[in-house]
Each structure stands twice: as C-alpha cells, then as structure tokens.
Amino acid sequence: MSWQRRHLLTVEELTLAELEQIHATAAAFKRTLSRNMRKVPALRGKTIVNLFLEPSTRTRMAFEMAAKRLSADVISLDGASSSATKGETLRDTAENIQALQADMIVIRHAAAGSPLYLSRFLDIPVINAGDGAHEHPTQGLLDTFTMKEHLGSLRGRKVVILGDILFSRVARSNIHALTKLGADVTLVGPSTLVPAWFTHLGVKVSHDLRGALADAEVVLLLRIQHERQAAGHFPSLGEYTGMFGLNKTRASWLNPKAIIMHPGPINRGVEIDSELADGERSVILEQVTNGIAVRMAVLYLCAGGQPEQVSPVA
Amino acid sequence: MPALWIQNARVIDPASRRDAPGDLFIDQGRLVAPLSAAARKRARRIDGRGLVACPGLVDVHVHFREPGQTHKETIATGSRAAAAGGFTSVVCMPNTSPVADNSGTIQLMKDVIARDAVVRVHPTGCITVGMKGQTLAPIGSLKRAGVVAITDDGECVQSNDLMRRAVEYARMFSLPVMDHCQDYSMTQGAVMNEGVVSTRLGLRGWPHAAEDIIVARNIILAEQTGAHIHLQHISSRYSVDHIRRAKARGVRVTAEATPHHLALTEEALAGYDTHFKMNPPLRTEADRQALIAGLRDGTLDIIATDHAPHTDYEKDKEFDYAPNGILGLETALPVCLDVLVRQARFKLSRVIDLMTRRPAAIVALPAGTLAEGAAADVCLFDPDEVWRYDAKAGQSKSSNSPWSGRELRGRVRTTIVGGKVVFADGRITA
To answer: Which of A261, B61, B93, B276 is most open to solvent, judged by the fewest CB atoms within 10 Å of its CB?
Structure first.
C-alpha cells in the first residue's frame, strides 16, 4: 500500500495501516542510524523549516537531526526570532516561509489546531511537532514504536499513562495510537488532571495507582507542568509525589518485565524517583533515539517517499 | 411619502393574535385602517402573495462597533444588515471604544444614528464605569440620554454586591439590567464548551457551571430587589432549569437565546473553525434541546442575535487567539424558521412573537405590533424561498458567519421602517 498523506497533523486521523507504515519505515531508518555512513540521500535538495513558536529542546533537535540524516537542509526558527514578536500573524509567517521556497514546515505552537489551520492554505506539507494540549503525533508514534520494540504487538497489552493528562498533547497522541494498536490503556492521576471525559476516547480512567499499575507492562509518565496550566489543579508537587510519584515500591507492582517511559523533560524526584529514571527498566533515552528514526520516517513519507512494507508482527 | 398598500399577504401579528390572509395599509408612517377607494388608487402597492407580513423584527442584542471599532461595523452598515434581515428595531451593546458609560458617548451615538441608520437603533449604557466592574456608571444620566437598558455585555459584573446595587439603582429608572452570565474565575483561557469535544481537541473548556452560577446569582438578586434582570444569550440547560423555577415563583427575570445556540453544537468545532467561536460557547445537543424547550414553554422569552462583527483578518487566526462572536442579523430569520418551525414544529406566529412583540416589551419599545395607529415597521418575507447566503455580499461590513455559503430557507423581501421601504428585493432603498 502506498502512502497518500501529505501532512501529519494528528495521530487521531491516521488509519492503523498508516500507523504501521510509519513504524515499519522508522524501523528501516533506525537501522541506518548505526551505520558508519549515517546519512541517506532521501531528501537531498529539500529545505525543511522548523517553526518552533513554543520552547522545545528535544523535539526540535530530533527533527533537525532527522532532517539532516535525510540530507535535507534545515532552518529552525523560534518564537523570539520569528516575526510573531513584531505582530505578524501566523498565516503571514507561514506564507512567507512557503514563498521562501521551503519544501516542508514543521510547527510547534501553543495554540491547539494551528497545524490544521496552516494545512488549509499552505501547499507544502505541514508536520505537527506539538499543538497546545491537542496532539504531539511524532511523540505518540515514537512512544508506541518503542513499546513495540520491547513488547511486540501491543494488542491487549496493559499500558498506564500517569500524570497530567488534561494538559498533555503527548497523552492524547499516545491514547489515539495505543487504542488503534489495540492496547488496554488506563489513565491515572489526580481527578482534576484526569477528567472522566477521557473515557470517551476509548480508555479507562483511574485514580487508584496500585490497581492501575498492577501487572501493567508499560508505564508512561508525564511531566507535571506545575509552573504552568496545572497550577491550582492539585495542592503541591509534594502531595503529587506522595500520591502519584513512581517510586521503587510502586514500580514493584508492575509486571516484572514492564518498561518505564517518559517523553521528557523529567522532573527527577517529582513524577519519578531519580534511581528509577536511570534504572534498567527505564527506556527513556531509547525513546529519544527512536525519536530520530520516527521523525525521519514522517518527513520522508510526507515528502512523497514510499513506506517500507509492513511485516506481520509475531 | 406615498401611502402603501400591502396586498394578499399572510398577515401575522402576535400582539393581536392575527394570522390570516389580508392586506395592510400604511399612511403617514403609520399602520392605518383600510384606505378609501380613492386613496388606494394613489397608494404604492406591494404584492404580498406567497409572503408573510409581520411586525418588523426586534433584536435587543447587537454590536454595531461605533464609535471606535468601525473597521468591523458601523451604525450605517449594521443598520443595513438589520434591514436586510427584516429587523426594524435593534438595541446596541455599549462595548464600543470608548465604552458607552457616559451621556456624551450616548449623544454621539444618537447623532450618528440620526444621520446614518436605516432602522431604529437604540443604545444601551454600561452598568459600571469603563465596563470595569468596579463602580457604578452614571445610570441616571444614561437614562436621561436615552438608553433603553444598561449592561456590561462582553464583561460580566463579578462583584455580587455591585450587581445588587446596580439593579436596585436601575430599578428607580425602570431600566432593565442585562447581564452576560459568566464567572470569570472558572473560565480563565477558556475558548469552547468544557466536555468531551474540548478534551479531544485540547482546547480550554468553559464549563456551563460558570454560566449557571451567575444566572442563579442574578435570580437571587432579582428576587431580593424586585428589579428586572435580563439574562443574555443563555446557553446551558442547567441555566434554563434555574430560570424556569425562578419564573414559577414570579421572579422578574427574562432571558434570551441566540439563533446559533439553537442551531449548532460544540461538534461544529471539530475543525477549529473560528466562525464557530463565540461567548458563551456552543454547547451540547442536550443543551440545544433545552434551549428550544425553554422557548417553547416561555422559560426563555425571546430570540436575540448577539450580532458580533469581526474582520476577516481578526477571525483568521489560531483558534485560541481569534475573537469571540459571529454575525447574526442577516441569517436570524431563516435559521429560526429552520430550527424552530420546520424542525421543532413551533407555530410560525410563535416564532414571530419571539422576535417582535416580546423583545420590544423587554426594553419597553413601542414596536413589534401591526396595530392600527402603530408606527409602520413591517417585515415581508417568503418563508419558503431557498437561497444561498454569501456573507461577503451581505450588508454587514464584516463577513464572519458560519452560514456563509450555505443554503438557507426563508428570505426577507421587504423591510419597512416608519412607512418607508428601507430594503426591497436584496437592496437597501433607504
């Protein structure tokens, strides 16, 4: 099956087949990462603009790295250096980037729906690198890619997403990816940050950490954005850690082979014990490396490349 | 001005319970008894066959943006949009630049209205100085300057004590106090209804409770003071329920619903289209049904458009950053015919009542009637004409309507203000 999609705006809109194609293509690119000659010529001559209107380290670097591995030219703009500070609208900024002959635009924006908005009037592909509390599709794709590397098929696998779900775009992209892949997903956290509305997305909601972690095979931790929106939704970071922080005792409730994930940045000692973050079950840095391969796949496919064949998962 | 003779229309006048085929006669700007045979020969005839003739529509909630935001709308363009929509009397909200919190600004508006308006335009004044919710505006002077109500629409008076003093004070002048019901502590950064859809879209939710709490507050204050509080653009089913119970006790509250809250739900926001962004936000199907039920049993008194023009470039933004509000005047009648008459099976005369006599009564305007001797404000419309609405081709200066490009059924053909034809067959004739 060929790849038809020009933009990557959400995981929600992807079919299961498309999701599997991205993963298969990412797996092929991942193999190139360990070669001596790590660059592939797939996007030679193409220019990719990373328009990051909200702070980001990991995602922006991973997108730059991915583009460079594909031999594309990359220009990265952040909020402070863009014309947004001079009052230019997003539409005008984006149309200027297109007029400057960019071949693709990767956008990170604080306002949900901004990538969809750009895709309506731009002729070039738009890749969502995180839009408000909506989606962070490449993160959801790389997280599920990492889970599959460890667990194989995710069908029926018990996955817990723990933390600030309400304000998390990472949570939403993972929810859509995991439900499409057939996983059994439970969201856990304080009731103010994990409202029951989420059950309409096909997942369970729980505030009982022990019950939820029991025999889970994956726990995906999310950062508590206490300095931002989440302020006022719970009493204090100390109380959060006391009620929901992942420590050794709580980790022992997990399935013995369970992996611990976190999209970063980590607040050590808040949502996770420092020791656990560095422990043998932690795949946090693997996620970061996989982020390059998955983003290579996304850039390559949306630029018109064709996917690797999906091999049936054992 | 020649006499007018509207022939063979279906004449609907809820004030006199009239709904029958017939003629209307207008002379010297007033509705009159059937003209003599000699006078009929000289009268200008308007063929009413297939049309409904009803009192000119009345809207107690429009934003005409003048003074100060005339890039969006002016009294000239707004009143033309009103005429095109069959409205002959409209009530302007005071959130202009500067806000209408003093008699000088009201006088300025009245001068512009006298010069530019093609329908009857009535100003409101602010409840508080600068619409800041801190000290009472000079409500007595505003009344003397000619406002028909006071409101901080767009803002909601948060202090319960100040609101209490405002309604107590305004009562002395028989001025209704209109309130946009929103507890700001619950809606920080909110851009749409809080619920399943906001959860999916990652947008900040505006919980119905933020409306319900202020509705309940206003009911309590109206009950305590005996003052009339008018609750603007109700959107929540729980608010409808509060109002229903208050009215059963005889509390002096009235309430309005907008055509868009009657026709649309939060599901329309799936594509982050800013033409569906308004305040209060579109809510759920259950809320929409409750608004219709509220209009049916009289819990909600009237339809008001909240006509809120914004330029293309203001609306063409990230959803979070776009301003709230949509146009309403040129689509209100067909949208209400569709939702209330064709879908919810209201009698046509009932819908006309909700858009004429009843809103006029809330702000004590001598409008909304076809009684002999009344000012000849008349709307003639074809209830069945199907047409495509193009907001860019409309009379408003702005085009921010979710119905632009859509087919609508029911079209205003002629609008008459004080015996003068101001709109006919798609054109302003004033």
So the answer is: B276
Chain B residues near residue A116 by CB distance under 8 angstroms? 271-272
Nearest one of B283, B355, B420 to B14, comparing CA atoms: B355
CA R_g for chain B? 21
CA dist A24 and A199 (Å) reads: 30
Whether residues B36 and B107 share a domain: the answer is: no
What is the predicted pLDDT for the residue at A86? 78
B241 with B314, same domain: the answer is: yes
Say which of A117, A133, A172 has its CB closest to residue B272. A117
Report domain extents, chain A.
16-135+289-302, 137-287
Q: How far apart are CA B189 and CA B205, in angstroms?
A: 8
For residue B194, give the chain A residue with the closest CA.
A197
Secondary structure of residue A235 in the 3-state scheme: coil
A13: amino acid identity, one letter? E
What is the average pLDDT score of chain A?
94
What pLDDT is recorded for position A22?
98
B42 and B65 both lie in a single domain: no
Residues of A with CB under 8 A from a CB of B: 12, 89-91, 109-114, 116-117, 131-135, 166, 169, 172, 195, 197-198, 200-201, 229
CATH of domain A16-135+289-302: 3.40.50.1370
**Counting beta carbons within 10 angstroms of the beta carbon of residue A190, is it exposed (0 to 12), middle (13 to 18) or buried (19 or more)?**
buried
CB contact under 8 Å between A201 and B202, yes or no, is no
pTM: 0.95
The per-residue pLDDT for B260 is: 98
Predicted local distance difference test score (pLDDT) of residue A79: 78
3-state secondary structure of A266: coil
Pick the catalytic residue from B212, B306, B338, B377.
B306
- At B16, which CATH number? 2.30.40.10
Residue pLDDT, tens place only, B227-244: 999 999 999 999 999 999
What's the pLDDT at A314? Answer: 40
Residue A161 CA: distances (Å) to CA of A158, A217, A250: 10, 11, 14
pLDDT given for residue A119 in this prediction: 98
ipTM: 0.95
Same domain, B18 and B158: no
Testing the interface with B: which of A89, A118, A229 to mutate, by most B Cβ within 10 A? A89
Which DSSP category does B155 fall into? S
Residue of chain B minimizing CA distance to A10: B201
Q: Report the pLDDT value the prediction gives residue A312, as an integer from 0 to 100.
A: 57
Q: How many domains does chain B contain in total?
A: 2
- Both B297 and B421 in a single domain? no
Confidence at residue B395, expressed as pLDDT on a 0 to 100 scale: 98
Distance separating alpha carbons of residues B63 and B124, to the nearest angstrom: 11
Closest-approach residue (CA) in chain B for A131: B202
Looking at domain A137-287, its CATH superfamily turns out to be: Aspartate/ornithine carbamoyltransferase (3.40.50.1370)
Same domain, B327 and B353: yes
Q: Mapping DSSP to helix (H, G, I), strand (E, B) and coil, where does residue A209 land?
A: helix
B306 is catalytic: yes
Return the pLDDT at A38. Answer: 85
pLDDT tens, position by position, A242-280: 999 999 999 999 999 999 999 999 999 999 999 999 999
CA A220/CA A203 separation, integer angstroms: 14
Chain A positions touching B314 (Cβ under 8 A) are: none
Which residues of chain B have a pLDDT value below 70? none
Interface mutation target, options B199, B206, B266, B284, chain A, most CBs of A under 10 Å: B199
Residue B225 domain boundaries? 56-362
Structure-block tokens of residue A144? 């599920």
Nearest CA in chain A to B201: A134
Q: Which of A114, A170, A233 is the mutation pick for testing B, counting most B CBs within 10 A?
A: A114
Task: Give me the helix-helix angle, A137-151 and A169-180, nearest 10°.
Answer: 50
